[in-house]
Design a protein that fits this description.
Elements (H helix, E strand, L loop, with lengths): L1 E5 L4 E5 L8 E8 L8 H10 L12 E5 L8 H12 L30 H4 L14 H4 L34 E5 L8 H5 L5 E3 L6 E3 L9 H5 L5 E4 L4 E4 L4 H4 L14 H4 L6 E7 L13 H8 L4 E2 L10 E4 L6 H8 L3 H9 L3 H6 L12 E5 L3 E7 L2 E6 L2 E5 L5 E6 L16
Parallel strand pairs: 3-12
Antiparallel strand pairs: 1-2, 3-10, 4-5, 6-7, 8-9, 11-12, 13-16, 14-15, 16-17
């Protein structure tokens, strides 16, 4: 095992290979507060990549209802249980949020899926703590959709009240997922054929199918269960981040980098995808005007999914405001309280950056804000609120302007003669 630095954990950790980082890393932010589980992303991916024989139960993109739903079912609960069995009572954080980009969420003192392998895994050659889901667990991608949590110990009955923020008593939320294209992929670590690799130009994790022999070690190892076995070909497959679009090979983009199919299909405007600069130490290089860098490292409203797994996922989530904080801290780490507070009370820049989501299918490399007039003053949850109609401008890879939009969205009033027409 080598030692690599994991900035999500705030410390070094064990990993089977030495650290090597791309110049830019594929990354994304999902705003859970906006997701309506329309499954447009799911079907966009399915109709593009996994519509063939043997791929019937492959859903590279999916939206599951938490806390009960999951694809495969119970994927996160099972991994958390395995980690707890490997390190009883030790899966905790000793520090909390900090201003240090090398440990923004504090320090995790527990064991990762790479460090917990020793006491519980056989044979000794196994490199990653994991498990193989059963066929039944793969069968129902929408299991428990829209099922809420009610009162503890009261079956089939929900709270009569409790719909007020900051925490709802009866709750659920939608968790949209794709492959996180981790900086330290568990699938790559576990593959005995070395058939899995990260592209040096953008960090996308791919499987060389000419080398894969279908041992399913990648399926067993990935804690997010985003590598999947195809029975009729006897090889594994996974999300490829629509890399032809990322390379500008989609005819629609005329050579410009373009967002993935699932991102571009999102009607809830929950998604933003980008390529972030990587430093030589494995952290994100400072890039103040990049929208993903801003959301993760400056505004600090977007958090990694289960950072304690240790894979350093490059997918980040703005947590849902109405969910009990203890549940969210388990899922997104100790930065939850601060992230929700900042999202509930956004400053002028954050309000503008949030307008960038899904305004274009081109990848944004930089943004600028032009200040506009004051349009509202008031009070929200006991705090003074002032809104300005600022204009935010998005730029592409070559510095070209992609689009500009204002904080106050324009309203078109239908003429009276057409008021009741369809």
């Amino acid at each position: 095992m080598s030692k690599v630095y994991n900035w999500h954990l705030g410390r070094e950790m064990d990993y089977p290979y030495d650290a090597v980082y791309p110049e830019r890393q594929f990354a994304f932010v999902f705003n859970i507060n906006r997701c309506i589980a329309c499954q447009s992303c799911t079907m966009a991916c399915k109709s593009t990549w996994t519509f063939s024989k043997g791929q019937e139960q492959m859903w590279w993109a999916n939206v599951e209802t938490k806390p009960y739903g999951g694809y495969p079912q119970h994927w996160d609960v099972k991994i958390l249980e395995l980690l707890e069995q490997a390190n009883p009572g030790g899966q905790s954080w000793s520090e909390t949020e900090s201003g240090d980009p090398k440990k923004p969420y504090g320090q995790f003192d527990g064991k990762t899926v790479f460090e917990a392998r020793g006491p519980v895994l056989t044979p000794d050659s196994s490199r990653v703590l994991g498990y193989l889901p059963t066929d039944e667990e793969w069968n129902s991608p929408n299991i428990y959709e829209d099922n809420p949590v009610g009162g503890r110990g009261v079956k089939g009955q929900f709270h009569k009240t409790g719909e007020q923020l900051p925490v709802h008593k009866t709750w659920f939320f939608y968790l949209a997922r794709i492959c996180n294209h981790c900086s330290y992929p568990a699938c790559l670590a576990a593959c005995p054929r070395k058939a899995i690799y990260k592209r040096p130009e953008d960090g996308i994790v791919l499987i060389d199918q000419s080398e894969c022999r279908g041992y399913r070690k990648c399926v067993e190892a990935c804690p997010y269960k985003k590598t999947m076995y195809r029975g009729n070909t006897r090889i594994s497959e996974k999300c490829i981040a629509c890399y032809p679009r990322l390379e500008g090979k989609d005819p629609e983009s005329e050579g410009a980098p373009m967002e993935t199919r699932c991102m571009a299909a999102c009607i809830g405007q929950i998604r933003m995808q980008g390529l972030v600069k990587m430093g030589q130490d494995g952290t994100w290089a400072e890039d103040r005007q990049h929208p993903l860098y801003y959301l993760v490292h400056v505004a600090k409203v977007a958090l990694p999914l289960y950072p304690q797994f240790g894979t350093e996922p490059n997918g980040f989530y703005i947590p849902p405001r109405w969910v009990p904080r203890e549940y969210l801290r388990q899922m997104f780490g100790p930065g939850v309280d601060g992230a929700i507070e900042r999202y509930n009370n956004p400053d002028r820049e954050l309000l503008a950056v949030l307008q960038l989501f899904r305004k274009s299918n081109r990848i944004i490399y930089r943004y600028e804000i032009q200040e506009g007039p004051r349009i509202y003053e008031g009070e929200l949850r006991g705090k003074k609120v002032t809104l300005y109609n600022d204009t935010i401008i998005a730029f592409g890879r070559k510095g070209e302007e992609l689009f500009r939009t204002t904080l106050e969205e324009p309203i078109h009033k239908r003429p009276a003669i057409y008021a009741n027409s369809i």
